[in-house]
Specification:
Number of strands: 9
Helix content: 40-55%
Shape: globular
Strand content: 5-15%
Structural class: alpha+beta
InterPro entries: Phage_head_morphogenesis_dom, Portal_Mu
Number of domains: 3
Distance between the termini: 78 Å
Organism: Elysia marginata
Domain Phage head morphogenesis: 228-315
Pfam families: Phage_Mu_F, Portal_Mu
Strand order of the largest sheet: 6-7-8-9
Protein name: Phage Mu F like family protein
Order of helices and strands: HHHHHHHEHEEHHEEHHHEEEE
Length: 506
């Protein structure tokens, strides 16, 4: 066998028989090539869930970029796994055998940073009510017991709901449930605090999970675990949540104020910084007194009264000429509130809850917050639309030579609200809000027939569909399209209502 070289060979039992076929003219001698490729691909699939590698024969740039991105995510995931294992297993083990000193070991040091940061946040006389705090205690107790019993998902959801519910209440306390002057702004703020709540819940959940194991790497008893977890929860869900609630209230008012400024800027195009009402005003803001800048000036995107602790300055609309006071005089805003909330952000991405989240899970946490927001938002609309009188859910329109009637029943409403999420996920808040609010005015929408198409039956699920019909309509000065399907039995059902970005040329 030493003479076979790279030739293919195999070993058989002396009782086995093989028949050899004559090779075709284009047959290759690469016996192992396909096997090697198969093994490489299977290994990639097992490790990463996809094939990673350079296919130089059939490759292209997009393939290699996708493979590189996948590999980067894989490396980041491995780094996270190693970090978690080191913090929860290796370090406690090293402490237990005396190689490193014991002490107040903690896998996260965010607490001190948050404490210091929140000292610089604005203050507010209102705060969480006693019933809210009692409800928080009840929710936390139930979640901690579930976690200790092995149910891990309950904790994250409970922590999310505690923060999100409080911050949503802060915003609606300023805007109301339906802010008619600018519903897009309201939805942006609501989405922002929903995502912020998800990042906070994720960070807090990691800390509480780490308390299940002691410094020696041994499981804690419930009597030991509970007081530690409860102490941490009180800090995050009472002390810090009060600050976050107050901050959300103040910044929601600022967003509402700047929204009002926009509506009168044709009369009062500028804003003037008014002197503080504080007994001892800070020198850093004294230099800004009397400053006048246009409403849309970039200065206001990061600097405005109330963006630092206990600021008592204010703004007023004016038609006076702008002044030349420099931006360098303005104090630097604190992390997490370094943008004007009129941008749609109550809390910004510089907040430690968000900025210190590991990169490879950042998108997952953000997605969780958005999805939870959508669930709540959709449920609120379903409840409200159910209460509408039946006559407001019916519209009559012309289809070629006949008149038809369409209805927003519960099934259709659910489908439309679900499909409206496309605009939300694309970041198109205007379309998202309008496509939801137009459902309340369905009866008054005026539809214009565009065209029809026969249904092409591709699967058994849609066998009941006979044809599709398309209509255009205008809502709040924007063009939309309604598509509905006609069933084999002659019914007409609304399928989708969405924004027309560009109308086809006739």
């Amino acid at each position: 066998m030493q003479d076979v070289g790279a030739a293919a060979w195999f070993i058989i039992d002396n009782e086995e028989h093989f028949e050899f076929a004559k090779a075709t003219a284009n047959a290759s001698g690469d016996v192992y090539k396909n096997l090697i490729n198969l093994c490489n691909n299977e290994i990639s699939m097992a490790v990463s869930g996809a094939i990673i590698g350079q296919d130089t024969l059939h490759g292209n740039r997009s393939k290699e970029q996708a493979a590189q991105k996948l590999l980067d995510n894989l490396v980041q995931s491995d780094m996270t796994m190693v970090k978690n294992y080191w913090n929860t297993t290796v370090l406690p083990a090293l402490i237990s055998i005396g190689l490193i000193p014991a002490g107040d070991y903690s896998p996260d040091t965010i607490g001190a940073e948050i404490e210091q940061l929140y000292l610089s946040y604005p203050t507010e006389s209102q705060s969480l009510s006693i019933p809210q705090i009692a409800e928080i205690d009840k929710t936390i107790d139930k979640a901690l017991k579930s976690l200790f019993g092995g149910e891990k998902k309950t904790l994250l959801k409970a922590l999310y709901q505690i923060t999100n519910k409080s911050l949503q209440n802060a915003i609606t306390g300023v805007f109301g449930l339906d802010y008619r002057p600018n519903p897009e702004l309201l939805v942006k703020l609501q989405r922002n605090v929903a995502v912020f709540s998800a990042f906070k819940a994720h960070r807090q959940s990691l800390l509480i999970h780490s308390l299940l194991i002691d410094q020696k790497g041994q499981p804690r008893s419930f009597s030991t675990f509970y007081p530690l977890a409860k102490k941490l929860s009180d800090q995050w869900n009472k002390h810090w949540l009060r600050t976050e609630y107050n901050t959300a209230t103040i910044r929601a008012r600022t967003a509402q104020q700047f929204d009002a400024f926009q509506k009168t800027k044709n009369i009062y195009p500028n804003l003037e910084w008014i002197a503080s009402r504080a007994a001892q005003p800070r020198d850093s803001h004294r230099k800004l007194w009397g400053m006048i800048k246009p409403i849309d000036h970039p200065f206001w995107s990061t600097h405005y009264p109330g963006n630092i602790w206990n600021c008592k300055c204010s703004l007023q609309r004016t038609d006076k000429a702008p002044t030349q006071i420099q931006k360098r005089y303005a104090p630097k805003p604190a992390k997490g509130i370094d943008k004007n909330p009129f941008s749609g952000e109550i809390f910004t991405t510089t907040h430690p809850y968000i900025a210190k989240t590991i990169q490879d899970i950042e998108k997952q946490v953000e997605r969780y917050g958005k999805n939870e927001f959508l669930k709540i938002h959709q449920t609120q609309h379903l409840v409200a639309l159910k209460k509408l009188p039946q006559k407001h859910k019916i519209n009559t329109l012309k289809l070629q030579n006949k008149t038809i009637q369409i209805e927003l029943n519960n099934k259709v409403t659910k489908r439309l609200l679900h499909k409206n999420q496309k605009a939300f996920n694309a970041g198109d808040m205007d379309s998202f809000v309008q496509q939801n609010t137009m459902l309340y005015e369905f009866k008054s929408l005026e539809f214009e027939y565009l065209n029809s198409a026969k249904h092409v039956k591709k699967n058994a699920k849609a066998d009941f569909v006979k044809a599709w019909h398309y209509f255009g309509f205008e809502y709040q000065k924007k063009r939309y399209k309604l598509n509905l399907y006609e069933t084999e039995t002659g019914d007409f059902v609304v399928n989708e209502m969405n924004r027309i970005k560009k109308e086809a040329k006739k």
